[in-house]
Amino acid sequence: MTALLDIADVSKWFPAGAGPGAWARLKRRLSGGVEKLPKVYAVDDVSFAIAKGETVGLVGESGCGKSTLVRALTRLIDVSQGSVKLGSRELALKPARVFARDRDRARIQMVFQDAGESVNPRFTAFAAIADPLRRLRKLRGNALKERVETVAGQCGLPLQLLSRFPHQLSGGQRARVGIARAIAVEPDLLVLDEPTAALDVSVQVVVLQLLQRLKKELGMSYLFVSHDLSVVRLLCDRVLVMYLGKIVEAGPAAKVFEHPLHPYTQALVAAVPRLHETASRLRLTGEPRSPIDPDPNACRFYGRCPHGVDACKTTMPALDAFGDRQVACHFAESFLPQPRIAS
Asked: Is 191 in contact with 73 (CB distance < 8 Å)?
């Protein structure tokens, strides 16, 4: 299957303990160059692909690098190293400020976690949806008005709401404006960074149903970032599990959640509340390792893993294939489902 988006060896690091603009200032001040600066490895050597029409979930605890990864692959921020290909076109070579005006910008769009915060408060709903159409499709006049109204209808937004400002809309209506703005330019890939996290449960269901319908109607691919494993299992074809900047497990969503092979994935799945639970849950102890200049020879999960041994401290496990799954654990094979013996 041909990949729509191909991420290869992507890393993103930041200067440790420094604010905006410090990276450039430190490079100018230090004669030794940037390689001697301490770095926070928010994303470290990540590779995966998304096929046309596929929905891929990205899960992991807060601070693991999910949002940094999606901002890097959508080119809202520059990558430190690696390749980001959309079809046959390489996106990582262009600075983010240049890519913002590139014709490929329309092919990959993002729906943010809080639509109220990501929309200009001085824009009406109409202006918010029209803005990417003006910038990327160069639409004006009646053509612009017709396209905005069409997209609003697709997202279930009554036309009378288009004249309202974000503070005059409900959370669900703002979420629909964010989705309408993203799909207005007809992207190939829609990146959804926890699009329902700020919504009531009843509204979440409506928005998720809208996203499912739009995917079928428009044939888009989705990268769905979420803390809600139940939603990811329901909506996604495949799932990527991220821990401290690295992908530790990847595979079909149903298989990953039914029988996780990485100890961190096992802990995530065990943390999902269940009715009439009888078995004791797997609980993690200790604190995550520091993302500042991490030891390249040690497993990131070492110290919290209940199965960790000395080898985990000295050898970084590779993301190896186990059938249609990939797992970065020295002992993944021991967690594989055992075949049933006929009686």
From this structure: yes
Q: Which residues pair with 225 in a beta bridge?
A: 58, 193
Query: Helix, strand, or coil here: 325?
Result: strand
What's the longest Cα–Cα distance across the chain?
74
206 φ, ψ (degrees, to nearest 5): -65, -45
Mean pLDDT (the chain) is 86
Predicted local distance difference test score (pLDDT) of residue 19: 56
From residue 122, alpha-carbon distances to 130, 165, 321 in Å are 14, 7, 50
SS3 257: helix
Amino acid 259 reads: H
Distance CA 73, CA 80 (A): 11
Phi-psi region of 219 (alpha: psi -120 to 50; beta: other; left: phi over 0): left
Q: What is the per-residue pLDDT for 337?
A: 75
Across the beta sheet with 55-59, what order do the strands follow?
108-111, 189-193, 221-225, 55-59, 238-243, 246-252, 325-327, 320-322
- Please check the confidence at residue 179 and state whether its pLDDT lies above 70: yes
Q: Is the dihedral of CA 269, 273, 274, 280 positive or negative?
A: positive
**Using CA atoms, how far apart are residues 272 and 229, in angstroms rounded to an integer?**
8
